[in-house]
Amino acid sequence: MIAVGGGATTDIAGFAASTWLRGIDWIAVPTTLAGMVDAAVGGKTGMNSPSGKNLIGSFHSPIEVLADLQWLKTLSDRDFSAGLAEVIKCGFIADPAILTCISNNSLAELRGSDELTMDLVSRSVQVKSDVVSTDFKENFAREVLNYGHTLGHAVELDSGFELRHGEAVAIGMVYVAELAAARGLITQEVVIQHREILQSCNLPIAYKKSAWPRLLKIMALDKKARGSSLRFVVLTGVGRTTRLEDVNEPELLEVYERICV
């Protein structure tokens, strides 16, 4: 099977390949930035359901991923920016050079330079490869790739998928940065860095206050949750991560109010 398209296409095709005849080979040809740096690499396949994001799926790696940067020229600025959210995530969890590159160049400059784009794609894929090679089925280490995704997936579902995945993850990254700062794990300067770099890529960093009860309910279904306890991947510094497992609802709401519109 050959899957040509964005992340949703490669996710569902990979899932179909994993179930047909108990698993057949498949090749991913991602045509979006998010697909190239995230969805098509790492072996996760799946589909969305009314209950949540990617709760139905399997681990089934493609035998090849063919990423041609020429596809990116067909994307709108919005879709390119949405893909940059996953690139920025890789910068915060493991490779600060990514953040430097994006901070030093405008969106137009990033889009207009194959050399810059290739560097960002290569670095992001390397970050994911390094993590996945140590924890393919997400027993613990791979959870770092979900930085910003706990709230992000909830926001994406709550928006009725009107927000792009990367846009929702951008909001989620600012949220966990604020959460880490509230715990004294990172400085306010790192929170500001999150806000500034995401805004420079035209990504949203806030969500509606009235959504909180719905978001909390959706987050309870997150795969990192343990029983009734939510767990978040947070930073202790740029390039350093840990987990928060002892959060409570009042604390989560107080932090959420910092990113409300």
What's the domain count? 2
Tell me about the largest β-sheet.
3 strands, parallel
Write down the overall mean pLDDT: 94
CATH-defined fold name of the largest domain: Dehydroquinate synthase-like, alpha domain
User: Topology as H/E string?
Assistant: EHEHEEEHHHHHHHHEEH
Question: Can you describe what's shown?
Answer:
The chain has 261 residues and is of the alpha/beta class. The protein has helices spanning 7-19, 33-39, 77-93, 96-103, 107-112, 114-132, 149-158, 165-182, 188-200, 212-219, 249-256, and strands at 2-5, 27-30, 44-49, 52-59, 64-65, 232-237, 240-244. The chain has 2 domains: 2-73, Rossmann fold (3-Layer(aba) Sandwich); 76-259, Up-down Bundle (Dehydroquinate synthase-like, alpha domain). Helices cover 49% and strands 13% of the residues. The strands form 3 sheets. The protein has a 3-stranded parallel β-sheet. A two-stranded antiparallel sheet has the order 3-4. α7 crosses α8 (165-182). The termini are far apart. 43% of the residues are buried.
Secondary structure elements and pairings:
Layout: E1 2-5, H1 7-19, E2 27-30, H2 33-39, E3 44-49, E4 52-59, E5 64-65, H3 77-93, H4 96-103, H5 107-112, H6 114-132, H7 149-158, H8 165-182, H9 188-200, H10 212-219, E6 232-237, E7 240-244, H11 249-256
Parallel strand pairs: 1-2, 2-5
Antiparallel strand pairs: 3-4, 6-7
Helix pairs in contact: 1-2, 2-3, 2-6, 3-4, 3-6, 3-8, 7-8, 7-10, 8-9, 8-11
